[in-house]
Give the backbone structure.
Amino acid sequence: MSDHEYGGSDDLSLPKATVQKIVSEILPASSGVSFSKEARDLLIECCVEFITLVSSEANEISEKEAKKTIACDHITKALETLGFGDYIPAVLEAAAQHKETQKVREKRSNKFEDSGMTLEQLAALQEEQFKAAAERHA
């Protein structure tokens, strides 16, 4: 199956550095096993193909349910349909971890709300700090 079957593009890829980092964590230097650039590039192509396959199947499932947004449930159904049911527990665990990460990020973004200052006060404080920085560097 190629990207063209799904209306994809040959430009689809994953960041090489990120993939290399993941591989390096799995195959530490102390193991004595190296991973060639060609192998990394092939792995990236396989990952893109897998993502395309799963997302296409999930899209079909969501369309059958008359949904306009692909949900986690659609991904797990797609994995099951495609014969990748063994991956579902790991996918659900990753989804739960992502939810927790998002909660932490949301809490961080509320620090301005928790400051007790109005937007006008925050803007005035920011302007003062800009002026002070400009004076220091003038």
User: Anything to note?
Assistant: Residues 68 and 124 are 43 Å apart (CA to CA). DSSP finds five helices and no strands in the chain. Confidence is low (pLDDT under 50) at residues 1-7. The helical segments are 16-26, 37-64, 72-81, 88-109, 119-136.
